Amino acid sequence: MSHTIVNPADETVVTTVEAATVDETDAAIADAARAQREWARAAPADRARVLRRFADAVDGAIDELAGLEVRNSGHPVGQARWEAGHVRDVLEYYAAAPERMSGRQIPVAGGLDVTFHEPLGVVGVITPWNFPMTIASWGFAPALAAGNAVVLKPAEWTPLTSLRLAELGLEAGLPEGLFRVIPGRGSVVGERFVTNETVRKVVFTGSTEVGKRIMAGCADQVKRVTLELGGKSANLVFADADLERAAATAPYGVFENAGQDCCARSRILVERSVYDRFMELLEPAVQGVKVGDPADESTEMGPLVARTHLDRVASFVPDDADVAFRGTAPDGPGFWFAPTVLTPARDSRAAREEIFGPVVSVFPFDDEADAISFANASEYGLSGSVWTRDLSRGIRVARAIESGNLSVNSHSSVRYATPFGGFKQSGLGRELGPDAPLAFTETKNVFFAVDQPPVVA
Ligand code: NAP
Question: Are residues 224 and 249 part of one domain?
Fold first, then answer.
């Protein structure tokens, strides 16, 4: 069976990709297991060198990878180039890990006690369609660095950059079979990562619904699992904030990647005393977002990824929705949806559910306690922002919000050198940051008995 890849900006066919069967998946996993045994035995400096070469190969292919993402996912070309550069940086960062995976020597009686970080073996990475190459690298780079093999299933809609990354890895010197991208259906290839006993860990990024299923399936083999799931993050704007900056940046905190971002600040909470002023400032900022051809260097927001996703996003904005104002979007072919600002009730569907499109809801709040309580009134807890000039308030509120990634006076979420992940139903475990390779290892403790000479009086 094959899957047709459609360009979301104009609905033309880009290519078709063959979907793997269960047997093909099993064969790739078996190859990966063989390759992993060699890889784990290689000198740490040699593994580091290959990963640095892989980073160099990605660096040399930035425009090519960006072009693929523009056609496959509709990402604006500037953003897509950043994503390819991020993959290079993630590889470079974790290329340092093989030579730094030190265990410990623990003082005990009667001998020498040391710990080792042993690789798990084969790791299965399942990625979503919203940031195909960056999220793939968060899994494969630290897993390979820790001495594992990786089988990766990209989302059906967006496999092209992951397939190319696997080729670049091979060209850079990764052993044959060590890093395999297996396109196919979630219910076939993804499920097989869960049920095949040779896969020792599943790293899943996607919806909370599928994540729960994967976690339940992994329980059967006590398989390790990392989950990066949905979000409904809050952007809190206090009356003492730099309102101009808060309003000018708020669209980019939610409409980046057309709102198809797990970290999208899709609820803006504004202190009641400045609510009207904030809305006056927000309207031109939203209308100023440049929505259009992703191949155009000046475009800030492209189309949604697919027709079915467009229909789902549109279902959050029925004819009687509380629309405050909207930005613009092209007419004609393509899965376009204009940036949209709603002012719904706090308990409405738009206020509670992850929309994963360019739709943001704005709510007034009364005081700090009300803001924190509403920000936390969600099953999710991935990201969020706090805008205030009061340092103490910034610290207090950031600590009080039940979320894995917060920024004060900015909308930053992801840096490869800092840990990323969710509280509550936004996920389990952390990716990125200095400790990520350890999540792809088991700690082994070895005690060496030491013969003691008789004590001489
Ligand atoms: P999804 O429907 O859950 O799919 C994610 C991946 O899982 C796809 O590769 C999918 O394959 C596969 N899959 C589907 N059913 C499966 C099954 N039964 N067993 C194993 N794998 C299966 O999510 P999505 O719509 O692609 O992505 C959007 C979601 O991802 C949003 O909720 C978003 O918040 C979340 N996300 C979270 C983060 C984070 O870091 N926390 C980052 C990005 C996105 P198919 O393509 O074949 O369906």
Answer: no
